[in-house]
Amino acid sequence: MDQQRKHRILMVSDFFYPNFGGVESHIYYLSQCLLKLGHKVVVMTHAYGNRSGVRYVTNGLKVYYVPWRPFLMQNTLPTFYGTLPITRTILVRERISIVHGHQAFSTLCHEALMHARTMGYKIIFTDHSLYGFADVGSIHMNKVLQFTLADISQAICVSHTSKENTVLRSGITPERVFVIPNAVDTAMFSPAPNRLSCDEIVIIVVSRLVYRKGADLLVEVIPEVCQLFPNVRFVVGGDGPKRVRLEEMREKYSLQDRVEMLGAVPHSQVRSVLISGHIFLNSSLTEAFCIAILEAASCGLLTVSTRVGGVPEVLPDDMIVLAEPDPGDMVHAIGKAIHMLPNINPHVMHSQMKKLYSWHDVAKRTEIVYDCALQSSDESLLQRLPRYLKCGAWAGKLFGLVMIVNFLLWWLLELWQPAESIEEVPDLVLVQNEHEERMQDFVEAQD
Amino acid sequence: MSRGLASNSKYSYTHLNGKGPSEAIDVHDITVKKSRLRIFSSYSGAAVFLTATLYLVVLKELCISSIWSILVCFSLAKVVHHKPVKKESVVIMPAFGVQLETHYWSGRVIRRFIPISKILKPVLNECVTPVTCHWSLALILRDEDELTLVFQKLQPPVRMLVPVWKALCAATECKGNQHHLNLCARNSAKK
């Protein structure tokens, strides 16, 4: 078997540039590193406002902004079979070999994976978040996830905690789940050239100010820390519904000179905010993997975080102080961090992070998962249906029916527009000439 | 006169490089093949729609199911409706301009002339719709926000568009770098 075989990967998710976030940057960085390894990557997402159609981002990464309107929290309207024609067209014209879906919350991802599986492609799913089991939304989403993962080739989770959570929610066998942690762009997040003086200690908080990220904990922790440690100052970046509570806290305890509110910080300026501080405080109530603390550690900040989800797996013990999500415990942890501060060397931290986390490493590990997926055998619809029937007494039959209808629709589509009539796109090779403008070599594949 | 290159079940492409007085002129045609099946299904679709509408109007039964059936018949008729376009051609007159023509079966011809100085660049675009993705050839014109489609009514396959695009590029080449087009045979390794 040719171990160096190059794959043609389709990344599908509702979340991509121009949106900024964990999933978006994960897809972007992973795609860039896979391109460098020689594979071909195409991304499919929904249209963002006017941004619709085919776009090329850095290094020739092709993005299809499919003009389906998002309806709820950046998710495409779930029509079950509506996206079958466009998914099929993209899969055939780009000669895709593997489909990789991201994020359980993305309806486009689930639909595309279902269509790809009907057409016989191998599929991979990456789960980026932890979800609950008890509320109505979670129950429905877990059922959808169970449907998608019933017949998946391989799944990837970003931490061991996330793997446990995914396996429990979906009932997939653990042998099929790989754990590949996220990484951080250490070139972009580098520490300040000169060390800050330790006379005044600055604690940075950069997160969305929502319940899930523990904004309420901040409201209790900040006044107590300001009272116990007179030389400590806070810088809070980010915006959200809980910002009002933080402003109220500032007013109540007269902390206007000790707590600075920056508002929403654009992603490009996060580094400059981070390097202005000594300690990074993360108060999330749930986190599958926290890229924010990686960015902080890469900038040479000591991290204080709540011990939730996958956070304990992220950083070594000398770079992080963990606390329970309780105000008293967090204040104690911040005190401990302040004592640890003189022993911290930001540049040593940064070089350690460079060795521990790198997107190229993530891409190589993902490549292994792709090779593993492609080695599994091709199966017909009849062989795959029993897997759906196992999902539940009623749900199993419903899922089986959905797959059969999808198969019939695909067969009808094949009659209406045969795969041969969909023209394959030639690979565009960008040749960069330093002195002249870019020239394009149009390499045509002969039929 | 060098003739026809490519054709598929729906379209055929011909390239006429004239001799004689109109030596310099380049004409590229995309002709729609006359298909009896397509005409028949188009007319029958329209007939079904009209019959259904008339039947329901005459019987004065305008309830939800009748409106629904009218809508279904209309959408079916629209899908099988075949456009009355006979052919679309591009006449390239080097150093002068480009003329885009649409010929209909009824004999009507719509022409549009674009002077060469107005054309900035011809581009091959991938157009993504909610159900499919197809190629189109368009011109970027000076002082205009929208792209001008070269073939406005027809959607020919990309292998017919490429020679037209190359000819347009050659006709509108900029003074500096010339497009360097590499055509090499490559066996597409299909999985």
* Count of extended strands of chain A: 18
**Into which percent range does the helicity of residues of chain B fall?**
25-40%
Question: In oligomeric terms, what are we looking at?
Answer: heterodimer
Biggest β-sheet strands, sense, barrel of chain A: 8 strands, mixed
Q: Spans of chain A with pLDDT under 50 lasting ≥5 residues?
A: 433-447
H/I helix tally of chain B: 3
Broad CATH class of the largest domain in chain A: Alpha Beta
Average residue pLDDT of chain B: 78
Alpha carbon gap, first and last residue of chain A: 26 Å
Query: What shape does the CA trace of chain A take?
Result: elongated
> How large, in whole angstroms, is the Cα Rg of chain A?
24 Å
Biggest interface, and residues per chain? A-B, 31 and 27 residues
Element order of chain B: H for helix, E for strand? EEHHEEEEEEH
Helix content of chain A: 25-40%
Strand order of the largest sheet of chain B: 1-2-3-4-5
Task: Please provide a written account of the structure.
The complex is a heterodimer of chains A (about 450) and B (about 190). Chain A is α/β, with parallel strands linked by helices. Helix content of chain A is about 40%, strand content about 20%. Chain A is built from 14 helices and 18 strands. In chain A, helix 1 links the parallel strand 1 and strand 2. With about 190 residues, chain B is of the alpha+beta class. Chain B is elongated and about 65 Å long. At the A-B interface, strand 4, helix 2 and strand 18 of A face strand 6 and helix 3 of B.
